[in-house]
Amino acid sequence: MKCLPLVLFAVSSGAFAQTPERPFQPFHLPQLIEGKTFNLDLHPDRKVFWKGSKGTPTMCYNRESFWGPTLVFKKGEFIRLNVKNSLKEPTTTHWHGLHIPAIMDGGPHQMVDPGKTWSPTFRVANNAGTYWYHPHAHESTQNQLTSGAGGLIIIRDDQEAKLKLPRTYGVDDIPLSLTSRRFKLDDKFSFEGDNDKYGDYLLVNGVMDPQITLPGQWVRLRILNAEVERGYILGFSDNRTYYQIATDGGLVDRPVPLKRMKLMVGERTEILVNLADVRPGKHVDLMAFNSNQPFGFPGGELGTAPPNGGYLNNVDFRILRINGGKKTAKAVASLPKELTRNVFPKLSAVMKERSLLITADNPGEPFGFDEKLFAMDRVDHVVRLGDTEKWTVKNNRIFGHSFHIHDIQFKIVSRSDGPVEPYEQGWKDTLYVPRDESVSFIARFDDFASNTDAFMYHCHMANHEDGGLMGQFLVVKDLTVGTTKFRPKMKHTASDELLRFARETTGRAAPTFDGQDADGRAVNLASLAKTKPVVLFFIESQCPCTKEATVMLNRLQARLRDVRVVGVINGNSVVAKAWMKATKPKFSVLLDPGLQVVSAYGAKAAATFTLVAPGGRITKTYVGYGREMLVDLASRVAGFTGSKAKIPNFADAPKELVVGCPFPK
Ligand code: C2O
Ligand code: CU
Prior knowledge:
mainly beta, 9 helices, binds CU-O-CU linkage, binds copper (II) ion
């Protein structure tokens, strides 16, 4: 790891002068998108971060070169987002802080493959405030975030609109997304996982050393900590008082006067600051007063070398140079006394308490919750819809963490390290848990339930999250029904065992079966395969992969009429009908609730296909589906029937074999 050969200005004295090598750069205001339909395109890009640089490969949304446009949503509106993945790798886009159904949430289960567009729709339910969006693909969040993918969301509502607050974007209402990067000698971002949790150069909206001219009046700053791991102690260079007006989830009741506040990874704050005294020709700096933090403060570690050091560690540094400008015509003249009246859930309403313990076996080993690393197919908690719960996050290991939970906004009720800070009294979705401390919050889990789609909770430090400090919970209507076995969408690869099984069954006599379809009609192999070849498709009803394979099999059935495709599903007629309604097969479905057909054929996973020749011999067994396999299957079928029909080319089938989920034992 080498460092950019520029003069660093990590300062702890009062001298914040730029060097000739590091001139100020103009502030960047991300483009604003308003409306009800939002088109986002996440793509690779390049950005020149300093004069003379060769440029750095980046990722961004909508040609922002780094980061993304600011989206403006209106509370109550029904919106649609079309998120195109123009990267060469899978990704997701998560709407951080929004209260929406899990399937729209953009967590690790809502994968978008390269070239594909994901279009979630939802009603905006959150209060006016500052939220954000960013990739959330399991194990690649840090990489994609480091490359620059993310953006801010501003929600507006009637309550906020009534107040006399600065809200002219880019004039007196300024978005500030803070993050830092380390560069290699070839000007690329250094990305070595945990080694690069701390950047050496601060970027504000993707700009190094920014300066802005702001009017001499009350100005609103919307600040997001978009770091991988670093925390910020926010303040101004002249120690002036500023006023917090909103936390993660929107307005606080009354402005909170502050000189310093912690803003940890994932957290947002909105502040008002009066710049009336910063006349043209004068300036004041927004600062990170990060020196002399206790051990465990992210970015407090001494030294400049990886894995734990960095040039911005344990020093005070400038975030933004603010030059005094002229007052605008519609300047906000004073600070409102009251902002809103939040109604928080009450401790007396708590029906269930849970605690999460952050664990790690040894220093250097990945952090997990309760001795477990994140697993895509494990549900860690099940919450009943409508319940108020109290969650306590305990951290007795090594280092501070930034805990975030999806779906809800919560109220922090206690901290083991002292009183709840004045600047965290409002709605929150992210909180800081210092080393050796614990924090409790209460929340009501309302509106959105699903037995199959989970919400995440995790440390928002992307290196910790990717490393396994993440869990998931379902919100369900009825705990007694039992949660449907959770089947995440993930690529199961064909194991040696499965491939061996496929070879061994080929050529055998097909086991016969007698059963019925979802409408109670009799189905048996002998009659099906009398004259036509049969494709048996084994379906695990909860496995998303089988839904996608169905699209391909529909095409096969439509093109090659002389084949009979039969789906064999592991459920009764209720399960089968629900599956058929969701999946729309153009073939019949055989009920196999006791898994008898599945075991007679030895199928170990869903999306296993068995081609039975007319008369009843297994021509070939395929484990999983993919383009090559489907073309092979189709040409074998065509071979039997002498069909002249064109074999579909299955262009949109996966290139690699996708093996479905294993059948329940
Ligand atoms: Cu900002 Cu789970 O996310
Ligand atoms: Cu962490």
